[in-house]
Amino acid sequence: MFLETLSTLLDSTLATIYMVLVAGLSAFIFGLPIAIALTVTSKGMFYENPVIHKILSSIVTIGRSVPFVILMVAIIPFTRFIVGTSIGTAAAMVPLSVAAIPFFARIVEGKLATINRGLIEAAQAMGSSPMQIIRKVLLPEAIPGIANACTILFVSLTEYSAMAGAVGGSGLGNMAIQYGYYQFNTPVMMQALVTLVALVLFIQFVGDFITRKVSH
């Protein structure tokens, strides 16, 4: 019995880590360009465009405003189209990624907005192109902020993954509900909870360490 529970706990932990990593990578790949686009099209920037900025900002705001549990249910047809099923680890990664992209984009946009505009103006005065400013000024200056945003993202995704487990996903949330709550097995539920908390604390520790290392 102990070995069976330990095996379930290990499998659930690995499933949670896998979901979080894939969704986090998806958020970084798609969310970072959106954040950059929001920044460079804002007022006073070199690609200033109120229409595009407003459209992107509205999409991000709407994406962030939908509760995750509702989002999971609402995009079930899309999830089935992408992975062929609406339950399990693969299915949970789709809504996790969809929720993470606007979340990450908005946080990074805030980090980019704190960069000293004088640095951008100085780069423009030296004849730097917009893409050079993005690559050599905006992104390097924002590295500590982006590292912090990644920490917030992965912590949030770990929490979301637990909710995904409660409604057909896998991972520690599913273990706590299916093998703990539904079977009135409090020790199993507590094991999943403690492991989930430990995972969040580990992510926060590593994220804070990296953020300190890359800070100017």
From TrEMBL:
It is a multi-pass membrane protein. The chain crosses the membrane at residues 15-40, 52-76, 82-105, 145-168, 188-210. Gene3D superfamilies: MetI-like. Pfam families: BPD_transp_1 (PF00528). CDD domains: TM_PBP2. Residues 13-207 form the ABC transmembrane type-1 domain. GO terms for cellular component: plasma membrane. It is found in: Cell membrane. Keywords: Cell membrane, Membrane, Transmembrane, Transmembrane helix, Transport. GO terms for biological process: D-methionine transmembrane transport. The keyword Membrane applies. InterPro entries: AA_ABC_Transporter_Permease (IPR051322), MetI-like (IPR000515), MetI-like_sf (IPR035906). Belongs to the binding-protein-dependent transport system permease family. CysTW subfamily. This is Methionine ABC transporter permease MetI. It comes from Silvanigrella paludirubra.
